[in-house]
Each structure stands twice: as C-alpha cells, then as structure tokens.
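We modelled the chain as a single entity of 165 amino acids. Its sequence is:
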Amino acid sequence: MDTLKNYLPLCWFKSNPLELIRSVNFLKQNLIFYFIVEFFVQANMTDDPIESFYEVSLETLLTLLFVMFILYVNKTLYATIQVLTAFLFCSNVVSCFIIPVLVWLTVSENAISYYLVGLLLLWNFALITYIIKRVLSLNTLASAAVSLFYAGFTYAGAFALGQLM
C-alpha cells in the first residue's frame, strides 16, 4: 500500500519517476493488471481473443522495449523498474477511469462519452509526456514528440506485427 501511495502523485504530475520506490512486486502487479485490462479492451474491439492476446502481448513487449531503449540511450538503466512501473501504473490508473466510460459509450453512444474518452486519452498522453520529460530531462515539446513516437511504436507496431502473424 505504501508503494501505491508513492506512485499515485505521479498521476497528478507531482513526483519524479526516478525518485520513486523500486519494487519488483509492484511492477509485476502493474504488468499483470495492464495486460488484463488491455486484453479486455482489445477483445471487445476485435471479438477475436487469440488475435487480441497476440496484439496485447506485442504491445506490452514493445512498451517494455521502448522504455528500456530510452533508458539505455539516456544511461539511466538503473531506473528501469521505477520507470516501467511509472508507465504501467499511470496507464492503469487512466484505464480504471476509461473502462466505465467505454462501457457507457458502447451502450449509449452519447457524445459526452466520446469527449470523456478523448480527455482520458489526452490525460494518459500527458502523463507519459511528463514521465519522459522527468526521466530524460527534456523540454515539454521534445517530450511530447517522444510520447507520440512511443504511442506509434507500441500501438501501431503491435497492430502491424499482429497482422503479420
């Protein structure tokens, strides 16, 4: 519970991922939660659980590879556990809000639900940008560019590799 309390301020742009507690167990828990939620969302979009499993597996692997690559380039591999946990934790927190909105969107197709999904995705993008900014010591514009590359690399990359399988 203490680890959760340490990582939660990150979702409000208040802490530095490099200074967070290093916990392999918390990383594993976030990785499992991330995989389950992403699989749930993907399976509902494609209606093919096997394809969803492949895509979510690839997406998770590409996320791990991306984070490790930027840390390698920045010579901060010592912070792999904290930064991976920060990426996954922030995505998980946003997912806790986005799942009910997606259910609402599916059931009602209300315009407000589309706006809420957009806002939540923007929040997730801003969190990833913030983490990259703090870890790589970049300005906001450069961090946003790296975040866009991250999104393209992980989501589009997983989709493209999934189509090849």
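As a brief sanity check on the tokenised model: The mean pLDDT is 91. Residues 98 and 118 are 10 Å apart (CA to CA).
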